[in-house]
Amino acid sequence: MNVMDANDMVCCPYNKTHKMLRKKLQQHILKCREIYKDEVELLVCPFNKAHLIPEPDFLQHTRTCIDRKIVAHYQQSAPAPLNEETKHEKIETEENWDDEYVPDYDPQQYVVNANIVREPNGMFPSQRKAFIKQERKRLLGEDSDEETTGSEQNMKLPTKANSTGTQRPAPYKLPNRNR
């Protein structure tokens, strides 16, 4: 059984009758902000985004916010001292990635050279027909230049793996369960 602490329950800054668990507050604030956007104007605390304060009390809150000392501690604390255990020698290498020329990745160029079937989306019918013909040449080779019949045009383009005669394995069949 979960034991709830009194600090786990909080009130909504928009409507004090709304009480919820602290971990649900951020999600609840998003909803109430939309509902009460014309009625209540609250400012967000710079130290904790869960603190929403009315404008007259904002200056006083920023001076006395509990989370202010956490931020101040990190701003004013000195960096960790370097000693022999934390220092290391500069690593020298002959490799310089800035000097090497590597061409940019072009996804269109990759698809043209790879064994990937492209679809003619968003093209006019004449463009689609030319694209399908070009794809057939690209995937099956230059020898597939002859005209195809209407039923063959409607067929999907085979991949190179299927055009070489290799068969796909049959899908897994579940055993019959007669009860």
Structure characterization notes:
One of its GO terms (molecular function) is zinc ion binding. This is CHHC U11-48K-type domain-containing protein. One of its GO terms (biological process) is negative regulation of DNA-templated transcription. The protein is mainly α and 179 residues long. Among the domains are: 60 residues, no CATH class; 25 residues, no CATH class. Helices cover 34% and strands 7% of the residues. The chain is built from seven helices and four strands. The strands form two sheets. The chain has a two-stranded antiparallel ribbon. A two-stranded antiparallel ribbon has the order 3-4. A hairpin with a 7-residue loop joins strand 3 and strand 4. The longest helix has 16 residues. It starts with 8 loop residues before the first strand and ends in a 16-residue tail after the last helix. About 8% of the residues have low confidence.
Count of individual beta strands? 4
What share of residues are in beta strands? 5-15%
Distance between the termini: 42 Å
Helix content: 25-40%
* Bulk shape: flat
Secondary-structure-based class equals: mainly alpha
* Global mean pLDDT: 79
